[in-house]
């Protein structure tokens, strides 16, 4: 990792999962912000311009994955990891900066993506 910290925005309504993931990532030197509603997460995208967005699909106030194009437009430098508990929802995308993971998350899978794509 470079001397500049990599910042990660987690948009997921599973608070325990977010806290665990945040603790794992911060212990490895990443700066992490968590949002549990889509609207709050999208506002944070524009404020923070994160290096990474870990984006859940089913959120209380909308479907996160429908906002991938919006995130790409408003923060083109952000890479996105889409997560879902439904493996059937995972599909290909036109964006080369989008990765997919199925819940339950394997934290090593997230770390692998972050390290391989650095």
Q: Uncertain spans, ≥5 residues at pLDDT below 50?
A: none
The number of helices is: 4
Report strand %.
25-35%
For the secondary structure, the number of strands is 7
Q: What would CATH call the architecture?
A: 3-Layer(aba) Sandwich
Q: What is the number of independent domains?
A: 1
Main pleated sheet = 5 strands, parallel
Report mean pLDDT, rounded to a whole number.
Answer: 87
Helix and strand element order: EHEHEEEHEEH
- Helix content class: 25-40%
- Order of the strands making up the biggest sheet: 2-1-3-6-7
What does the model show?
- This protein is of the alpha/beta class and 118 residues long.
- It has one domain (7-116): Rossmann fold (3-Layer(aba) Sandwich).
- It has helices at 15-27, 38-48, 68-74, 107-116; strands spanning 7-11, 31-35, 52-56, 58-59, 62-63, 79-84, 98-102.
- Strands 2-1-3-6-7 form a 5-stranded parallel sheet, with helices on both faces. A two-stranded antiparallel ribbon has the order 4-5.
- A hairpin with a 2-residue loop joins β4 and β5.
């Amino acid at each position: 990792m470079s001397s500049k910290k990599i910042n990660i925005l987690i948009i997921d309504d599973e608070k325990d999962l977010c806290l665990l993931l945040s603790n794992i990532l911060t212990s490895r030197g990443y700066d992490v912000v968590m949002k549990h509603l889509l609207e709050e997460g999208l506002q944070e995208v524009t404020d923070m311009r994160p290096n990474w967005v870990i984006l859940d699909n089913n959120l209380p106030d909308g479907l996160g994955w429908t906002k991938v194009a919006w995130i790409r437009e408003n923060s083109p430098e952000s890479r996105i990891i889409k997560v879902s508990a439904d493996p059937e929802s995972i599909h290909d995308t036109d964006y080369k900066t989008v990765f997919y993971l199925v819940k339950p998350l394997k934290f090593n899978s997230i770390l692998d993506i972050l390290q391989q794509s650095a």
